[in-house]
Amino acid sequence: MTGHGWIIFIGRRLVVLAVLLIVISFAVFCLMYISPGNIIDSLLGTNPRTPQEIAYLTREFHLNDGFWEQYWLWASQAAQGHFGISMQTSLPVTDELRSRLPTTLFLGFYAYILTMVLGVGGGMVAALRSRRLADRGIVAAAIVALSTPPFVAGVFLIWLFAIRVHWFPAAGPGTGFVGQLWHLTLPAVALALTAMAYLVKHTRAAMIAVLDQDYVTFARARGLSSARVLFGYALRNALIPVLTMSGVILSYVITGAVLVEATFSVPGIGQLLVQSATAKDLPMLQGVAMLIAVVIVAANLLADIAYVLADPRIRLGRGRS
């Protein structure tokens, strides 16, 4: 695992991800281009319009240009971080995204930590207590969580912990680290439940398979402590397939915040996406879609790196890099 190997590995991944972003940007622009209606109707609505206003908006949004000219202009500006002006607020889309992104990232990473800690922990307990009461209870809870949409879980959590017992606030993002942690606990739990249940099932299956391997039996026969066998041999190898899902989980908890943010009135990217879709704010929709694509691509790159770090059998820069 030399520095040169890391450069080759990350370089290849970045090239693939850059091509993927180009394809996604083209798909996003095509969807907006062929969507019903046009920008002028979205901006003016049912208000009276003059030929001068129509001519100005046509020039401003380059509506008389061809498809490829419009796409190249939009893509070149998007590559520099400029997605135009929001139709709702008349503010730059980049400024709107920048103001809301920290809240969504805080919520997403909070849910991700809960997912990984409780999901892996629950899967370990279920595997160690296989076919016992604890195992049956954890698996049953995971099935219920998998069957519950995040917004339904959010409504239940609000009713139970915000209205009945008054442990957590029902809405709002909070201020400061502690305030955000307190206000976003219920949204994070609602967002993490499905991914947590999915991770419990995979961790349990991986742990059961690893605990039956010969090297675990030999480690126990050598007199190693139970903790060392569990964490140094069993868990490390069981986490390798789990790490392949970590990028998907991180993408899910960050991009899947749309309904959760709307349920808890959290002013993040998800709520902005809902508002933009309702108002047919095309520049904002394009900006949010590209931001989500970047998050997904970055999360999968991090998952690839984590997988290589966890599995010593992979040799960077050779064959399966």
Question: How would you describe what is shown here?
Answer:
The chain has 321 residues and is mainly α. The chain has two domains: 77 residues, no CATH class; 215 residues, MetI-like (MetI-like fold). The protein contains 14 helices and no strands. The radius of gyration is 24 Å and the shape is globular. The N and C termini lie close together (11 Å). The C terminus is likely disordered.
Write the layout of secondary structure elements.
Blueprint: H1 3-34, H2 39-44, H3 51-60, H4 67-79, H5 93-128, H6 133-146, H7 150-164, H8 176-183, H9 185-211, H10 214-221, H11 226-255, H12 257-263, H13 269-279, H14 282-310
Helix pairs in contact: 1-4, 1-14, 5-6, 5-9, 5-11, 6-9, 7-9, 9-11, 9-12, 10-11, 11-14, 12-13, 13-14
What is the gist of this entry?
By secondary structure, this protein is mainly alpha-helical.
